[in-house]
Amino acid sequence: MDSDALSKPYREGLVTKERFYLHIQFFRIYFYCRFSSARISMQLIWRAIPDAFITLRELTEAYGSMMSTQELRSLTEFFSDAMGEETIISQPRTLKHLSRVRVRCVMEGNGTLSPETLNKLFVPRDIRSYLRLLE
To answer: Where's the SOCS box domain (predicted)?
Structure first.
């Protein structure tokens, strides 16, 4: 599929620019990086952003005329597997997740978002791991 066809949902106003970029990033990982680290890459990306998970319905509405139902199902199965949960309906992320994203944004703004700094935080180990995107 060429880039002109892939950009059709964005050009037609079916998805925002930001969401379109997430779709392209997801497609790139799915189609070109089908090795074990692809799953880890997906996890790290989606643990660091506040956006709702990608759903089959969303992909079908945007790309249903370009991809088969089976391809779209395969994409969402890969995504769900990487995230460790099914993404049947689009819903906001948890407050816990949104808090992590905000704390990381503030730390980045202060120049303190680094593995070394996160390891030195005087917080429980599980919170430190969560901020480091390990869970």
So the answer is: 90-135
CA distance 135 to 127: 10
26: tokens are: 């997801």
Question: Which residues make Cβ contacts (< 8 Å) with residue 20, sequence separation at least 6?
Answer: 7, 9, 10
In three-state secondary structure terms, 51 is coil
CA–CA gap between residue 135 and residue 131 (Å, rounded): 8
Percent of the chain with pLDDT over 90: 70
What sections of 3-94 are H helices per DSSP?
3-6, 8-11, 17-32, 36-47, 56-63, 69-83
Rg (CA), the chain: 17
All residues at 6 or more sequence positions from 81 whose CB lies less than 8 Å from its CB, including other chains: 39
Q: Which two tokens stand for residue 92?
A: 């906001």
3-state secondary structure of 24: helix
Condensed to tens digits (0 to 9), the pLDDT of residues 67-113 reads: 999 999 999 999 998 888 888 888 999 999 999 999 999 999 999 99
The model's pTM: 0.84
Q: Which of 51, 48, 70 is nearest to 59 (CA)?
A: 70
